[in-house]
């Protein structure tokens, strides 16, 4: 997988369902510095809309990209969030 940005940290929320991927992502972004990029790896299909909605309504973060794929036959969703403030 190739991305257009440097990943600062990866957060593994596989196996967690709504609302935990968003809760854990918010906690992780609170610890980042402006400009850092967090990769969030999830298995909850709802994370696609949940994280997009959260990023669109939250100051200080920007959703850069979302990707859907598979890992060992299991659906995996990757989200890339930049801290902007």
TrEMBL record:
Gene3D superfamilies listed in its UniProt record: TusA-like domain
GO MF entries: transferase activity
One Pfam family here: TusA
InterPro entries per the UniProt record, alphabetical: TusA-like, TusA-like_sf
PROSITE patterns: UPF0033
Top-level taxon: Archaea
Keywords: Transferase
Domain UPF0033: start-end pairs: 11-35
Record's protein name: TusA-related sulfurtransferase
């Amino acid at each position: 997988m190739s991305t257009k940005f440097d990943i600062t940290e990866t957060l593994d929320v596989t196996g967690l369902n709504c609302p935990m991927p968003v809760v854990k992502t918010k906690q992780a972004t609170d610890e980042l510095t402006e400009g850092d990029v967090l990769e969030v790896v999830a298995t909850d299909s709802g994370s696609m809309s949940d994280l997009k909605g959260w990023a669109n309504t939250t100051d200080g973060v920007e959703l850069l990209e979302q990707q859907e794929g598979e890992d060992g036959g299991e659906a995996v969703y990757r989200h890339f969030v930049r801290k902007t403030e």
